[in-house]
UniProtKB/TrEMBL annotation:
This protein's name: Phospholipid scramblase
UniProt-listed Pfam families: Scramblase
Alphabetical UniProt keywords: Calcium, Lipoprotein, Palmitate
Cofactors (names): Ca(2+)
Function: May mediate accelerated ATP-independent bidirectional transbilayer migration of phospholipids upon binding calcium ions that results in a loss of phospholipid asymmetry in the plasma membrane.
Amino acid sequence: MKNKQNHDAKTTKWMSCPNVNTEFPGLAFICILEELCIVKRKDSLHDLIGTKGISYTILNKDGEKVFLATQETACEKFKLKIFNYYGNEVITVKKQYSFCQNKLFVWAPPDNFLGTVHQSKFAKRKLLVQNKSQKLIFTIDKQGLCKDELKLQEKSIGLINIFKNSSTIQLCFPIEMEIEQKTILLAACFLLDYIKL
């Protein structure tokens, strides 16, 4: 990603909505992307949204805003809402309280269930990504202190880099990946940050 993430939020422009045919119009932005960057940073639109909690700005590799997100956390659970330029909620992510497992559920739009991400019971440094039919589609394997590898049938297809000093997460995936899968992987980044693998 180009070095634009330190720009003031008010001067960072929004990405233009691509002209693509998708059944998820609120997610059209990520159809043509192969990289997203999640930054803990408040934007002026967060105040208009009016949701309390941690504020995030989600950027493309050119430093343009794609989405805004807010996360409310309480008692080992959290709810994440992701909004577009118009202030519409396009993705909802929920982590319920669980004593023995970290698991989140993803909807996009908010009433359309897409899938889950959860920590493996047998390998705590691995996350399992499933679609709405509970079919395993990816694994996320910890490769080091700050790097996580996306795998499809044990073959590497992307990376998640967590830059702890700058509160930034970089997600890279194939541009041709299905939009539902990109959305679930975006949600997975927040679980990785939450559980601090």
